[in-house]
Amino acid sequence: MKVTVFGVGYVGLVQAAVLADFGHDVVCVDVDSDKINDLKNGIIPIYEPGLTSIVERNYGEGRLGFTTDAVEGVRHAEIQFIAVGTPPDEDGAADLKYVLAVASTIATHMTSKKIIVDKSTVPVGTADKVLSQVSEVLATRGEAIEHYVVSNPEFLKEGAAVNDCMRPDRIIIGTASEYVKAQMRELYAPCNRNHDRMIFMDVRSAELTKYAANCMLATKISFMNEISRLAEYLGADIENVRRGIGSDERIGYHFIYAGCGYGGSCFPKDVQALVHTANSINYDAQLLKSVEAVNYRQKEVLFDRISRYFAGDLSGKTIALWGLSFKPKTDDMREATSRVLMESLWEQGAKVRAYDPEAMEETQRIYGCREDLELVGTKESALQGADALVICTEWKAFWAPDFDQIKGALRQPVIFDGRNLYDPQQVERHGLAYYGIGRGRSV
Ligand code: UGA
């Protein structure tokens, strides 16, 4: 089948590459000519395991094309994906200007039937807005061309995006049209060979499903983070509690890891956007507001702890920091807890010496060169002469460090672990003080 994808961001690029890999003929359109040129030259704008090879292969074999020419994109296919960004505006609502601009472009240039697929995470009611936009433009053109708008939210995780997209748990399709259902079934046929993953529903339910999924996951995390605070004051260990409750199938082991707060481009934005949607219909979304508030507070835990440990005097201290990205296997720093921590440390006159396997370039891009930030090439070199070690991201490279070496290198033998990577007793046997999240003790 022929497919056009508008937007070569995370979602659009991965989706396009995977659809091409399934054998479809895919054209990607983006307004950013630098990005499009880079992609044509095999330069992938994001770090995502497996993405480079699948883009290169499909581009090389002619199933995946890149262009800035929207007219070419519209003409290419009946199926038109919208996968452009929906950044939060000032009050937390998802900004739809890019989505609606693509809808207008499609409507302006279409000369034959189109199925417009909303892939971006968009508030409930967006498909209706896209539909009216398209209908309006067609009306001003004096044309009546058959068109449909369908919601098909994406559920991929950064760091596992290619695999998630190739082997999705479910494919949500929001449409009332039997024709569209059949087309979507054909498009996604390779995902359904062993097991039917298609779930059809009305368009508004599909849109809400996306927010509900992310908000449920964010809720699980904030819940565990809240219990972890209680554990600290009550002398319990959240890791034991996690194993204890996860064994109940109704709760499950996934997404119940306490830590230094959730980040990324999705959870913070989507929780805020759903709160905003609730406000707009005069519903007080108390639980969602609390999920956000707990996370906000949790991102400050590491700094509070370090500050208390040094009796509020951080001036001139050097803090070794392991892990900058919001989670492992990505260079994405959006809403990363490391940023909240570094900014607080700098404000108090401390220096940060940081190492991350992938996100150092991105950190440099965000913060530029500054005297109180040193980015170093290995996790060991971050330690030398530092006053403490703090861990923000659970990269595998940090799972089994040489604790004696850490103790020897640090000026103060102390680890603040925002991801509960170690057994506290084991660390303490090496003569290091250890503060995890919810591990029965606090500073
Ligand atoms: C999230 C969802 O997991 C995807 O299903 C969804 O498609 C995506 O958002 C999206 O809307 O596009 P992602 O943002 O890539 O994916 O990251 P996650 O793996 O969900 O992690 C989010 C944050 O939660 C990270 O900061 C992670 O460290 C934190 N987390 C996760 C915890 O603190 N505890 C956990 O138990 C799990």
UniProtKB/TrEMBL annotation:
What sort of enzyme, by top EC class, is this? oxidoreductase
Membrane-crossing ranges are: none
Top-level taxon of the source organism: Bacteria
* EC annotation from Swiss-Prot or TrEMBL: 1.1.1.22
Family label: Belongs to the UDP-glucose/GDP-mannose dehydrogenase family.
Associated pathway: Nucleotide-sugar biosynthesis; UDP-alpha-D-glucuronate biosynthesis; UDP-alpha-D-glucuronate from UDP-alpha-D-glucose: step 1/1
Spell out the protein name for this chain.
UDP-glucose 6-dehydrogenase
Q: Which UniProt keywords apply?
A: NAD, Oxidoreductase
Q: Tell me the Gene3D superfamilies matching this sequence.
A: Cytochrome c1, transmembrane anchor, C-terminal, NAD(P)-binding Rossmann-like Domain
